[in-house]
Amino acid sequence: MEKVQPQTSYTSRTSQVISLEKGKLPPQAIDLEEVVLGAMMIDKKGVDEVIDILHPDVFYKESHQHIFEAIYKLFQNSEPVDLLTVSAQLKKEKKLDLVGGEFYLIQLTQKVASSAHIEFHARIILQKYIQRTLIKISSEIIEEAYDEGTDVFDLLDNAEAKLYEVTQGNLKRSSETAQSLVIQAKKKIEEIANREGLSGIPSGFTQVDKLTSGWQPSDLIIIAARPGMGKTAMTLSMARNMAVNYNIPVAFFSLEMSSVQLITRLISSETGLSSEKLRTGNLAKHEWEQLNVKVKDLEKAPLYIDDTPSLSIFDLRAKARRLASQYGVKLIMIDYLQLMTAGGSQKGGNREQEISTISRNLKALAKELNVPVIALSQLSRAVETRGGSKRPLLSDLRESGAIEQDADIVSFIYRPEYYKIDEWDDEERTPTAGQAEFIVAKHRNGGLDEIRLKFVGHLGRFENLELFDFPTEIHSRMNDAANDDTFKTEHFPSADEAFGSSMNDDEITPSGGDDGIPF
Predict the structure, then answer these.
(1) Catalytically annotated residue among 256, 299, 352, 450
(2) Architecture, CATH, for domain 206-466
(3) Quick check: pTM over 0.85?
(4) Is 256 a catalytic residue?
């Protein structure tokens, strides 16, 4: 008997490749595609249930793609969907013969009696499409991985971005028609009109939200200031307002401070206990009770802090995608931009180019996840050498003009008190103690403003500044009696009374230190 030689490992490997790449049909469910299309043509309820789940590309057969496109256009135009209207729409587009004529449409409607279980069937079709897409993406990744000229960090980022798109069910389309975009825009405007409140994510600061209508999805917001102005305190105050007051999931990437230090600041802000007491643990019995009671809301808040040092923009994008997918994060904060690295092919290059890469990628991340991204930024020392009030300008943005170019909103934090300036340069000459100005210097989709906020230094937080609105008559009388000390004393409150709330008794140290302003 002739001895059969075993196959070589080379032959075995070759047969595996043939089996994977040539010997299998792509995942498909043509029978379910027929049932779903038939159900959509005989029952309006079927159209309503799956029109937002499916799109033309999910169908394996090209003829089925054309039929769904016809149904979708009828739905968009608020026209009835049935055998006759779909046939007429296909005939109008000169695709009726391409799909098999009216006879094929009739066959589709005869395959089903009702739209029962249509959503379940549609999701199976979508699953098959996702499987086909994963095969395509995997093939592209394999091909790119074999290319020696491909940067490995770029490859990782692109691979994760493509897989994230599949996870979200938001696979990119090459383009969208003006008609579909106008419909989307009108729908969004109607939702905003019917909804009370803001169109974006509220910051918790009344005047800021009034100016911006909340932080808008896909926007890159830069908050810049010199060291000691309160950048971290500002973003932590906003993060707290969003997560605690509005239950909005927020991701906070801290490259400067540890997560425990950040949460300790939040505990100080939430409980009213100074950071010095929390650091030493020197609390009275009632303060322990105060601590245990007031941190409960903070414990339940959907706030996710990542304190990875020297985080690269590629790692940040990967982490942000996972947080958005896993926890539904609606806003991302980064403290701060200049501590990030570009990674990949930009690593070790010109610092200005590196910052440009980081800025550009942050804007791309905001668009990809469709969430606001707030990034803190340092200002150059030119602010300190400038005479007068030392108010920051757009030209003070450190290391790159690309930050100003990429950002939708550029804002500054300015506290005259830090520079030993006792009064605001305004008509009333109001005191600057415990106050800050949030300056919106660039706003791509809105106006500019200089908004005053209250700064509680020893608790490391910003609050709304409560102002009294004097009637016009009193304003007039005040001007007439400007030199009458008796009148002013009797009829007008002092600065402490005018700008105060229950927190006005807090002592604020105007210089460095844990109870001062090192934020």
Answers:
(1) 256
(2) 3-Layer(aba) Sandwich (3.40)
(3) no
(4) yes
